[in-house]
Design brief:
There is one protein chain. The chain has one domain (2-283): Glycoside hydrolase/deacetylase (TIM Barrel, Alpha-Beta Barrel). 45% of the residues lie in helices and 14% in strands. It contains eleven helices and seven strands. Strands 1, 2, 3, 4, 5, 6 and 7 form a seven-stranded parallel β-sheet that branches. The radius of gyration is 18 Å and the shape is globular.
Length: 285
């Protein structure tokens, strides 16, 4: 049997992104919403979650691009000159490699984010990270510690091998992933932390139109696959601040497409929430 978790990241980052995710959840194939407590539209996301009756979310933790929840004096090595996080993962990892970032401060901030999500009353089913920074070994170790402490049963693993568009960026991401994914799988297995069997969407991020979605659906293997997406209502707010989401409207169109829904139905693929995936996994033990 083939199962599919369609995960929408960055819920809470911006209102137009929230709007797109809710539409993809209500009218499309999105089955998991990953909530970002450091996003500027976090409270807007909570209100939208209430209106659609959402009772579980993934915790989408961040150390870049957004605003930390911890007092600046407690996490100075994580902060840029404006007291926000560094602009992107490239700057962050350069600081990390040169040992200019205190790992204890990372733990403090990520714990603050989990606590903020727990206070919402929503069930946290899994951990993932903005710009996938938890794939780095030292940060993954922190994620595992927090997952154990807060009894969060799953962490995203980008164990992806197939891609459906070409380009230099895809080659670059594929090289990074091949270097990191085996360690991630080993660490999660040793820690008894769950993740789906397969993954899609990272190597094709930014290119997820209807054609690519249809090809991904055709490629699914037996077991459970997590497919990450970034739907949005693209407008000036998104284009000015969050250029990565510039094709969010194409993803939204694909996620709500009748052709995509029909292909999933015809292939007898079952859509799962993360909570359903965890129950299914538990029942097999």
């Amino acid at each position: 049997m083939k199962y599919l978790i369609v995960s929408a990241d960055d819920f809470g980052l911006a209102k137009n992104i929230n709007e797109g995710i809710v539409k993809a959840y209500k009218e499309g194939i999105v089955s998991c919403v990953n909530l970002m407590p450091t996003g500027e539209a976090f409270h807007d996301a909570l209100e939208r979650a209430r209106l659609i009756g959402l009772n579980e979310v993934g915790a989408h933790l961040a150390l870049t691009q957004t605003t930390p929840l911890t007092e600046a004096r407690k996490i100075p090595t994580l902060l840029a000159s404006n007291n926000g996080f560094y602009k992107n993962y490239k700057i962050f990892f350069l600081k990390l490699i040169h040992k200019n970032i205190d790992l204890n401060q990372i733990y403090i901030e990520l714990e603050s984010q989990i606590n903020a999500l727990q206070m919402t009353g929503l069930r946290i089913t899994n951990l993932s990270s903005h710009e996938h920074i938890h794939m780095a070994p030292v940060i993954l170790d922190i994620f595992v510690k927090l997952a154990k402490k807060y009894r969060i049963p799953a962490i995203r693993c980008l164990n992806e091998e197939k891609y459906f568009h070409s380009g230099i960026n895809r080659v670059y991401k594929s090289m990074i992933l091949s270097f990191l994914k085996e360690r991630v799988k080993k660490v999660l297995h040793a820690s008894a932390i769950s993740s789906p069997d397969h993954f899609r969407g990272y190597l094709d991020s930014g290119q997820l139109n209807e054609e690519v979605f249809l090809r991904i659906i055709e490629s699914l293997e037996e077991g459970t696959t997590e497919l990450v997406c970034h739907p949005a209502i693209v407008g000036p707010e998104v284009l000015k601040k969050y250029r990565f989401h510039k094709n969010g409207d194409l993803e939204l169109s694909a996620l709500t497409s009748n052709a995509v829904k029909k292909r999933i139905h015809n292939k007898e693929i079952q859509l799962l929430s993360y909570g359903e995936f965890l129950l299914k996994k538990k029942s097999k033990r």
